[in-house]
Design brief:
- With about 130 residues, the chain is an alpha+beta fold.
- Helix content is about 35%, strand content about 20%.
- The protein is built from 4 helices and 8 strands.
- The strands form 4 sheets. Strands 1-2 form a two-stranded antiparallel sheet. Strands 3-6 form a two-stranded parallel sheet. Strands 4-5 form a two-stranded antiparallel sheet.
- The longest helix is centred in the C-terminal third of the chain and has 22 residues.
- The radius of gyration is 23 Å and the shape is elongated.
Length: about 130
């Protein structure tokens, strides 16, 4: 990947590359994303425009980003590696996502602990006390 994008790399701190997502934060965003697409095409790779989203923290910004004539979808929440970035800078989405994950884990664990078919020695290894002890 380094050889593919070496012509596009600059010393700008606002250019970030995520695993499958390109995140560019600068004034000439559309031009840079188009340059990424053009460079990837040279190596027979494509930027998936259906999965690529645009998040802005400036509520007054009305412009759209177009790549090869297609408009990028705008989102208010960006999920990446289990973390959530909200457009207003709040933590509500992040807290809700972590509470949901913890609740799902608790439900799956309690389902195993309360299942009568689960052997007692497995229940004790999970840290739960088996019934009758």
């Amino acid at each position: 990947m380094g050889a593919i994008i070496q012509d596009l790399q600059k010393l700008v701190p606002w250019m970030l590359l995520y695993a499958e997502d390109v995140r560019l934060a600068c004034d000439d965003l559309e031009r840079k994303v188009q340059a990424w697409c053009d460079q990837l095409v040279l190596f027979e790779l494509i930027l998936n425009l259906k999965k690529t989203e645009n998040l802005t923290t400036d509520v007054n910004e009305s412009g759209f980003i177009k790549i090869n004539g297609a408009e990028l979808a705008r989102t208010s929440v960006f999920m990446y590696l289990g973390s959530a970035i909200d457009s207003d800078g709040g933590l509500k989405v992040e807290v809700n996502s972590r509470v949901s994950a913890a609740w799902c884990k608790w439900c799956s664990l309690s389902g195993v602990l309360c299942d009568r078919k689960t052997p007692e020695h497995l229940k004790s290894e999970m840290g739960g006390q088996s019934p009758g002890q």
